Automatic annotation (TrEMBL), chain A:
This is DNA-directed RNA polymerase sigma-70 factor. It comes from Neptunitalea chrysea. One of its GO terms (biological process) is DNA-templated transcription initiation. Keywords: DNA-directed RNA polymerase, Sigma factor, Transcription, Transcription regulation. Residues 24-91 form the RNA polymerase sigma-70 region domain. The keyword Isomerase does not apply. InterPro entries: RNA_pol_sigma-70-like, RNA_pol_sigma-70_dom, RNA_pol_sigma70_r2, RNA_pol_sigma70_r4_t2, RNA_pol_sigma_r2, RNA_pol_sigma_r3/r4-like, WH-like_DNA-bd_sf. GO terms for cellular component: DNA-directed RNA polymerase complex. Belongs to the sigma-70 factor family. ECF subfamily. The keyword Transcription regulation applies. Residues 121-173 form the RNA polymerase sigma factor 70 region 4 type domain. It holds the Pfam family Sigma70_r4_2. SUPFAM superfamilies: Sigma2 domain of RNA polymerase sigma factors, Sigma3 and sigma4 domains of RNA polymerase sigma factors. GO terms for molecular function: DNA binding; sigma factor activity.
TrEMBL record, chain B:
It comes from Neptunitalea chrysea. It comes from the Bacteria. The keyword Transmembrane applies. The chain crosses the membrane at residues 80-101. The keyword Membrane applies. Keywords: Membrane, Transmembrane, Transmembrane helix. This is Uncharacterized protein.
Length: 180, 169
């Protein structure tokens, strides 16, 4: 924790900021990328959102008060950026969020950066049908293996509610996958 | 302490003793011990070969360009024009506000007769042509009538069409 405090101080100090930020990008780019990619699904969109996320982190680092872990704060920004990106994209295409998810899954089949098997594609299609919160919770728990306490800080939701969301998500996914 | 759930009607149903006391604990235990779902752990998502090296360079380049914000140089002539323009705008707005709040706005004191007199005297440049142009659509539906030529039947017909009846006293 002391080490994190020192790192945050380096990020907020104009003299050391750029060097510390370089370290931050190097350390978190992959974790944040995969978190974003699982939400927006295609690589180009994930690239846009990742860059915007780091820019936002850079612009707002001075306002970070250390009320949560730095990692949770960055994950929260990445999550919000991804969701806003999808909503904005749906609005521009004049379609609903649900239709946007369906179109993303359809595009996945032709995506050069997707080499999943049939079952992996089916799983993504099933995840896309989940309500937004359950989708996030499932991805963060199942693929990213985050602890409920960490997810609670990122999503600002109680641990109990997260466990319940994950439970419901798994049940629905099993149902979707066995039905089709 | 009063039981918050005392309003719930039991209707003859019974539950095991202490059922609700440890319900949350048992539910969380069930969820925690749920078997790991048998879904693939790999998503199948791929990325370009050197993506993570490239994206780091892109992000840091964007940030360093944010640090160096261009300073716009404005010539003395342009600067004078901006200042003079701003001063003039402030004076105009101040005069306008003053005029409104001091009640010097003559439009507020005009009566309908004043306006009619002005039009008749030719002070307002409005001709019948202007009126015709402005209300061309409405004029097409207007029929000029002479009230002296109206028969009693016409009047009764008009009143019945517009559902006008004599008020009861």
């Amino acid at each position: 924790m002391v080490q994190e405090d020192l790192f945050i101080a380096a990020l907020q100090n104009k003299e050391t900021q750029n060097r510390a930020f370089q370290q931050l990008v190097s350390q978190y780019k992959e974790r944040l990328y995969w978190h974003i990619r699982r939400i927006v699904l295609d690589h180009d969109d994930a690239d846009d959102v990742l860059q915007n996320t780091f820019l936002k982190i850079y612009r707002n680092i001075d306002s970070f008060k250390g009320e949560s872990a730095l990692f949770s704060w960055m994950y929260r920004i990445a999550t919000n950026e991804s969701l806003s990106f999808l909503k904005q994209k749906a609005r521009k295409a004049n379609i609903t969020d649900k239709e946007m998810q369906e179109s993303k899954i359809q595009n996945l089949q032709a995506d050069v950066y997707f080499e999943g098997s049939d079952i992996q594609l089916k799983l993504q299609a099933a995840i896309a049908k989940l309500p937004e919160k359950q989708r996030l919770v499932f991805n963060m728990k199942y693929f990213e293996e985050l602890k409920y306490e960490e997810m609670s800080q990122i999503l600002d939701t109680s641990v109990g509610a997260l466990k319940s969301s994950y439970h419901h998500a798994v049940k629905k996914l099993e149902e979707y996958l066995t039905k089709d | 302490m009063e039981n918050k759930n005392s309003h719930i009607k039991k209707e003859g149903f019974k539950i095991p003793e202490n059922y609700f006391e440890n319900f949350e604990e048992r539910l969380m235990h069930t969820i925690a011990n749920e078997k790991v779902p048998d879904f693939p752990k790999e998503t199948g998502f791929k990325i370009p070969d050197t993506y993570f090296e490239d994206v780091e360079i892109d992000i840091l380049a964007k940030i360093s360009s944010e640090n160096v914000k261009p300073i716009r140089k404005i010539s003395w002539v342009k600067r004078f024009n901006y200042i003079a323009g701003s001063v003039a705008a402030i004076i105009i707005v101040a005069l306008g506000i003053n005029s409104i709040f001091n009640g010097n706005n003559e439009i507020n004191t005009l009566t309908a007769t004043d306006i009619e007199n002005s039009i008749e005297a030719g002070y307002l440049p409005i001709s019948s042509y202007d009126v015709g142009e402005a209300f061309s659509d409405d004029i097409a539906t207007i029929t000029m009538t002479n009230s002296n030529e109206l028969s009693e039947d016409d009047i009764i017909n008009y009143l019945s069409v517009y559902n006008i009846t004599q008020e009861e006293e």
